[in-house]
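Exercise: predict the fold of this chain.
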Amino acid sequence: MPVKKTQSSKLVPQGKAQKNKGKSKSPKTNQKQTQKPSKPQIITREFDASGKVLGRIASEIAIVLRGKDKPNFRPNLLVGDKVLVKNASKMIITGNKLEKKIYYHHTGYLGHLKETKMKDLMAKNPAEVLKKAVFGMLPKNKLRDIWMKNLEIEN
């Protein structure tokens, strides 16, 4: 097989294609240099719900779960903290929501739309009311279930 001498003075067989033909091996300077984000430090934050309004504490919790209060917030990454809420049974519900608000749940069968009043749910499990409020305040995407796993509520 005949041998052809190239510019870099290497001996290359003539039938073989050269990979970096005409290209230098130096790094490109016009490319963006991005820094990998460091692993976020996740801590557990505690909230006391006694004497606080349901919607106001739920919005605070949603902000902490997403990590919007941190300087390294990115909407597509998990940078939020874990949240522990205490005294959920002592939170305040304003207006006539206890009597008028209804939670709906469909079983999937025809005509099986279940209704639960907020008053009944507060008597049975006040943590569920807060959990539903926070769930509704988080963005509807794949991360919402992961954020909800970082929420722990004690009555």
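Check your answer against the key: Residues 42-93+125-153 form a domain with the Ribosomal Protein L13p; Chain: A; fold (CATH 3.90.1180.10).
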